[in-house]
Amino acid sequence: MSSKFIDAHQAAQRVASGDTVCTVGMTLIGAAESILSAIEARFLTAGEPRDLTLLHAAGQSDRQRGIQHFAHPGMVTRLIGSHWGLAPRWMAMINNNEVEAWCLPQGQIVHLYSAMAAGLTGRLSPVGLGTFVDPRMEGGRMNARTRERPDLIEHVTFRGDEYLFYPAIPLDVVIVRGTHADEEGNLTTDEEVMKLEVLHAVLAARRYGAQVLAQVKYRVAKGSLHPKSIIVPGNLIDAIVVCEEPQMDHRQTSSWDFDPALCGDIQLPAAQNAPLPLDLRKLIGRIACRYLTPGCVINLGTGIPNDVIGAIIHEERIGEQVTITVESG
Q1: Considering its fold, how many domains does the chain have in total?
Q2: Which residue ranges traverse the bilayer (predicted)?
């Protein structure tokens, strides 16, 4: 069996002009920086690949890296995602009508991968009804260029109930990241902060015969990985790039190259931080916390929830009364 291991520049050669490329990550968590930057370098020197469709669930940038590498006129003509708040070049291109851009709910994109993997034509969901995603309103269109395009999302009635139909998006390339890969290509996410939708996207790729490119931190011997630690079997992965500069291009987060607490290897004592200053963000958080009741389960997302809710719960000593989950799963 020929080796699946190649370098980042060889991986970049596997992306053709006109391809639909799906990337997995959240901010820089899980972002395959070595591969993404190599694809950018190829475009800047050779003009290819161009006219790509870029599909992603969560936003994947820290204002400089991640999917920012694809933010060049002509490189991507169609953008489908959920968040570009940390991708200023993408925001500028969307605002300047340099790319067709669709904003869909992050969770629905992830669920769509599962539907695609199952061979379904799409996903029915009530999520998005009556919002800007609803085709009776804006249909998720982000600029004038996109408003010239036919609806991507459909409003349908099924058994008397209203839904939005999110159609399957055939894939050509899926780019993911893991921690270890053995010589057969089996992939783990041991040191990653989150597993994210890696397996969902890979299975969707295989349904369409798409290539799966993976970046890892370590190459290990065949048989050395615990079977239960394998997130993606090697027969689902086409090529693997071992990151040459992990402190730069395989960071756990934008702020940390590696912290064992972030991947659950250790648990640190609760920080004894000073109470948050009473500002508008904290006031919003305190109002939200009034709705908490003993035994409730809450979900925190990026922004004010992430910044203040946990701290307020700690200040009020009610952490044992509620269960906190996070939007990234």
Answers
A1: 2
A2: none
Domain membership flag for residue 219: yes
Report the predicted TM-score, pTM, of the whole model to 2 decimal places: 0.94
Give a yes or no: residue 257 inside a domain: no
Tokens, residue 87: 């991708």
pLDDT at residue number 294: 95
DSSP string of 274-289? PPPP-SHHHHHHHHHH
- Show the tokens assigned to 249: 């291009």
Q: What is the dihedral of CA 296, 325, 55, 206, to 10 degrees?
A: -100
Residues 311 and 206 in one domain: no
**Each residue of 285-317: pLDDT tens digit?**
999 999 999 999 999 988 899 899 999 999 999
CA distances (Å), origin 101, targets 91, 133, 145, 148: 10, 12, 8, 11
User: Which residue type is seen at 287?
Assistant: I
Between CA 303 and CA 301 the distance in angstroms is 7
Q: Cite the active site residues.
A: 327
Q: In what order do the strands lie in the sheet with 187-188?
A: 218-220, 180-182, 187-188, 230-232
